[in-house]
Amino acid sequence: MKFSGLVSCLAVAGAATAGRIPTQQRSHKHALPTTKIANIEVVDTPLVRDALELIKAFIPLQPYLYNHLMRSWLFGAAAFNNNATLKAAVDLELHAVGTLLHDLGWDMRPNSPWHSENLPFEVDSALGAVAFVKDHNLSTWDENRLERMHDGITLQGMTSYLNGKNIDTNWIVQSVIFEFPGPRSPLIRDADYDSILAEFPNDTVFRGTNETFTWLALTKPEGARGTFIDYFGVSYVPGYGPQTNTAFELITAGVAAEIAQYPNSTFQSHI
Ligand SMILES: *[C@@H]1O[C@H](CO)[C@@H](O)[C@H](O)[C@H]1NC(C)=O
Ligand SMILES: *[C@@H]1O[C@H](CO)[C@@H](O)[C@H](O)[C@H]1NC(C)=O
Ligand SMILES: *[C@@H]1O[C@H](CO)[C@@H](O)[C@H](O)[C@H]1NC(C)=O
Ligand SMILES: *[C@@H]1O[C@H](CO)[C@@H](O)[C@H](O)[C@H]1NC(C)=O
Ligand SMILES: *[C@@H]1O[C@H](CO)[C@@H](O)[C@H](O)[C@H]1NC(C)=O
């Protein structure tokens, strides 16, 4: 779950080389097959179908996670369907895979392939999503597309760092922001909100999120330290220890060491 901010820009495919590339290999900038889910028109490629299949594995243990991922994708898609200019500018397949897989690191199943010992869940999720796409050996996914997706997933909770980033990275994050409680966004039609929430209800999303975040602090404190997950560890995990901040501790300890090493250097404060 994350915060807010938006930018826009439009990538134009290289016209000179486009003619030599078979149609389906440059399909992400052209019309893709579509289908309807919860009455929302969405892209329907083999890669997106596989991503959908992958996250169905969350349903038994974490149904709230599956619903959260589906809503994030569909809210974004509903906003695109409501604005043709926007829809033409966004990489719809990248958006689908990026939103559907943006919380792979929440997977609480034993032996989850996305549960590292020491990385924040956002990074686990991004690495998992990139590996998932790479496993498909698709010539349409170059490093640039992979990185846009990686950034959108990694930066999902760091909205204030998104200014100046590309439209695809921003729209992964913006789609997740639609999940935040509060007034409905004017970018999405009421009927679309209604059909999405009817099929993918959000009635346990807070309880599920609280449990998952506590579980992350419990099972990988190293990946929680210095992130907001720390609060869940401090509050709910016995023996977790006090709140820590690596940068603060490093700098404050460094001040004392620096004074010992350079006792005669003058330093003047201006605050
Ligand atoms: C539609 O999207 C474009 C591109 O992001 C934006 O400039 C424009 O303001 C949007 N239009 C509406 C009505 O929101
Ligand atoms: C992708 O390529 C690897 C290595 O050549 C191969 O093992 C794998 O089966 C391929 N995967 C798909 C989905 O084609
Ligand atoms: C869940 O959806 C309802 C209905 O749109 C909304 O009022 C509420 O804020 C949403 N809750 C969360 C946690 O997003
Ligand atoms: C969050 O989850 C933890 C662990 O299950 C639990 O102890 C705590 O009471 C929950 N917080 C709230 C506000 O329900
Ligand atoms: C700091 O200044 C004092 C007094 O001038 C001098 O005795 C001392 O050697 C200096 N220390 C260093 C580390 O330069």
From TrEMBL:
Sorted UniProt keywords = Signal
Signal sequence segment:
1-18
According to the lineage, what is the superkingdom? Eukaryota
Q: Which organism is it from?
A: Xylaria multiplex
This chain belongs to which protein, by name? HD domain-containing protein
- The reply to whether Signal figures as a keyword in the UniProt entry is yes
